Amino acid sequence: MWQGKKLIQVRQADHNFVNKTWQHYYLYEPNSHAPIALYDRDTGVQDIETDHLGTPISVYQHDTGETLWAGDFETYGKRKCQKAANQEDSSGQYDPKLRFQGQYEDKETGLYQNLHRYYDPHAGRYITHDPIGLYGGLNAYQYCPNPVEWIDPLGLSCKESVGESSKKGDVAKGDRVRHFTNSKGVQAIKESNMIKASDQNSVFTVKAKGKPGSPRDVEQQLGIGRGRANHIVEFDANSSEFSVVENPITGATERVFKGDVDLSNRNPTFKKNR
Q1: In the structure, what pLDDT confidence band is assigned to residue 86 with cuts at 50, 70 and 90?
Q2: Which of 81, 203, 206, 237 could link 257 by a cystine bridge, Cβ 3.0 to 4.6 Å?
Q3: Domain at 203, CATH number
Q4: Domain span holding position 79
């Protein structure tokens, strides 16, 4: 069972509902696909320990602290080993089956269901091309160029797994992005305190780091029209809000927001690019 884009319930049973069955309900960090606990109808609440990427590595019984399951995974998610409290439990009841954020292991195929497509942890690649085409990057089957720091919860495009916010609208300190526009655009942004999505219903930004470069350099680097890099809007954001995408034309790394971006509580600054 899904709630929006998050898996919240899984049930296993044989076709006669006679043999061993189990049912899991998943709880996640706010604004994230990183799990924090699951509820099992037989054993109750279980706490999930994750690594820095939000991948489950241990499961504990909430009331006793007993370790029910532990797993070790290779860089691209292939399981190296696992152990469970009940080694005779062939049903896998203690394994949360959640892998990288947004992934659920299909026991029959060994593939990880990643919402929009399936991921093969043995190959470290998706088995089908990216549904959003080259907007997800030049390699349509690639998971992430850096699986130690990046995640792809939706199976569309990767993003940095840092600075997750406790609630929507909060922003992580030090995570700042830069949006380029023309004089008409910056005036509209100042008046509405909002960056309106346009092309592909998206707002395109880059990481706000160092000098931006001349307007002409930025236009060539990002493949935008003449005059659209004359003004800069910088603002705070958290990494759960945007996808990190490689520009299919220029190869530049961009941070892409879906829909309009409200600049409230984001400490926006406006500069003329020279």
Answers
A1: low
A2: 203
A3: 3.20.170.20
A4: 2-99
Examine residue 81 and state whether it is found in any structural domain, yes or no.
yes
The one-letter code for the residue type at 99 is: R
The residues near 161 (Cβ < 8 Å, ≥ 6 apart) are: 52, 53, 54, 101, 149, 150, 151, 239
Could you give phi then psi for residue 212, rounded to 5 degrees?
A: -75, -20
Does the reported pTM lie above 0.70?
Answer: no
Of the residues 99, 128, 148, which one is the last residue of a structural domain? 99
Mean pLDDT of 175-185: 95
User: Could you read off the pLDDT of 14-42 as tens digits, one per residue?
Assistant: 666 555 677 899 999 988 899 999 999 88
Residue 91 lies in a domain: yes
- The count of structural domains within the chain is 2
Residue 224 makes CB contacts below 8 A (sequence gap 6+) with: 180, 218
